[in-house]
């Protein structure tokens, strides 16, 4: 199994590539920009992207989606509660007074819900609905020698996602983390939406926003 993540675009969204190297199939999570770089890395790894998954649809997590989707014909997936944000990218940018127009977005092929799975080859991830940063925020769990959760902007190293944006809710995000993410094993690697990785155990003990 291949698990890679790297920062893309000006706001440093962590794009994640998960690959079944034996079958040459992959899932890309949060292609926030720099689509040529993402596509080049897939080619270097010998992987064909079959699915594009968004942990949420803020503009910094979807900027490269259409270009990656057109190049790979991968299925594009979001949670339906974030559709208003996905369709309102220009509204988001206007709110930040960003001096550029929104990228054209790809069609949504599948809405993801709690308990769904996303698969590429033998690689399979489970979907957790973790609202708070946005109404349709999700996290993805992956079993293996070491469990992994792709947390998007729900949980960061010693921090949590901001809740002052469209549809954000502080009580919801804390509940999502405590009930769902903190139910995962301590050794679970947390790949965050921005910044460094962490573990569930570290955040359970040391995160000032949600530590027990």
Give the fraction of residues assigned to helices: 10-25%
Main-sheet strand order equals 1-2-3-4-5-6
**CATH T-level topology:** Metallo-beta-lactamase, Chain A
Shape: globular
- Report the CATH architecture: 4-Layer Sandwich
Secondary-structure content class:
alpha/beta
**How many domains comprise the coordinates?**
1
Number of helices: 6
Number of E-type strands: 14
> Could you give the order of the helices and strands?
EEEHEHEHHEEEEEEEHEEH
Quickly name the level 1 CATH class. Answer: Alpha Beta
Major beta sheet summary:
6 strands, mixed
Strand content is: 25-35%
CATH homology superfamily name: Ribonuclease Z/Hydroxyacylglutathione hydrolase-like
Distance between the termini: 33 Å
Name the average pLDDT: 95
Radius of gyration: 16 Å
Low-confidence stretches: none
Could you characterize what this model shows?
It is built from six helices and 14 strands. It has 212 residues and is an alpha/beta fold. It has a single domain, classed as Ribonuclease Z/Hydroxyacylglutathione hydrolase-like (Metallo-beta-lactamase, Chain A, 4-Layer Sandwich), CATH 3.60.15.10. The strands form three sheets. It has a six-stranded mixed beta sheet with strand order 1-2-3-4-5-6, with helices on one face. Strands 7-8-9-10-13-14 form a six-stranded mixed beta sheet. The longest helix has 11 residues.
């Amino acid at each position: 199994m291949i698990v890679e993540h790297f920062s893309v675009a000006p706001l440093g969204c962590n794009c994640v590539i998960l690959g079944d190297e034996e079958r040459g199939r992959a899932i890309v999570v949060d292609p926030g920009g720099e689509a040529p770089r993402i596509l080049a890395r897939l080619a270097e790894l010998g992987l064909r992207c079959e699915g594009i998954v968004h942990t949420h649809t803020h503009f910094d997590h979807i900027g490269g989606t259409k270009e990656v989707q057109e190049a790979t014909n991968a299925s594009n997936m979001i949670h339906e509660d974030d559709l208003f944000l996905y369709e309102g990218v220009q509204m988001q940018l206007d709110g930040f007074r960003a001096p550029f127009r929104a990228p054209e977005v790809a069609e949504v092929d599948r809405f993801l819900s709690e308990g769904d799975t996303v698969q590429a080859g033998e690689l399979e991830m489970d979907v957790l609905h973790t609202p708070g940063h946005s109404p349709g925020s999700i996290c993805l769990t992956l079993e293996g020698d070491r469990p992994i959760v792709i947390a998007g902007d729900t949980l960061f190293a010693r921090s949590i996602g901001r809740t002052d944006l469209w549809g954000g809710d502080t009580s919801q995000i804390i509940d999502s983390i405590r009930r769902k993410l903190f139910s995962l094993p301590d050794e679970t690697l947390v790949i965050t939406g921005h910044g460094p990785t962490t573990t569930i155990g570290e955040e359970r003990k040391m995160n000032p926003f949600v530590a027990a």
